[in-house]
Automatic annotation (TrEMBL):
Species assigned in the record: Trametes pubescens (White-rot fungus)
GO biological process, one term: cytoplasmic microtubule organization
One Gene Ontology cellular component annotation held by this UniProt entry: cell cortex
Highest taxon in the source lineage: Eukaryota
Keywords: Chaperone, Cytoplasm
Membership in a protein family: Belongs to the TBCB family.
The protein's name: Tubulin-folding cofactor B
Amino acid sequence: MQNKLELITGIPVPNQEISVQASEDAPESLGVLADDSKPLGYYGIRDWQVLKVDDLNPATSFTGQLHDTSQVDKFELTATEYAQRQDTVLAYKQRNKIGRFAEKPEEEPKEPETVDFPIGARCEVESTEEDFRKRGTIRFVGPTEFAKGTWVGIEYDEPIGKNDGSVKGKKYFECPPNSGVFVKPERVKVGDFPMEEINFDDEEM
């Protein structure tokens, strides 16, 4: 019997340990068939019981060689070589635009924010200098070509600005040189801000 089992399992006869189980899923064996000279009937085997053959020395058998991968040369690729192959999961994802290769939806352009600043209104611009108020008149409100979003063009009362109402050759409003400036709406406060008079001392006349 053991010779026949060797043909089926690949386990040499001296390495075989044959046990009987009630089923394939049974946790324990019913007994061990230790004497090969006796027929199966001697052990009282019944229909649907299972013979389990364990390999006592897998290192010398064919089945052990199948499980021992220490002597097998491994097929390895560098990351660059893998990326160049066309039969990989990476290439499949690239072709079908899956995962990180999926096309990102285009962001819808944001509509310019609505700013209710009347043209000609008096205003004060936030300043980082203490007790220094930048007052002027609103001359422009809207989008520009030099930057995204809504900008407020202001003509300062004094020549403390950065332009004459134009930026990069584009004219947005009229004002004297160095009196114009463009700021974001959150820096502007609209209100009754009268023009401040500058009083010079006699030494500064």
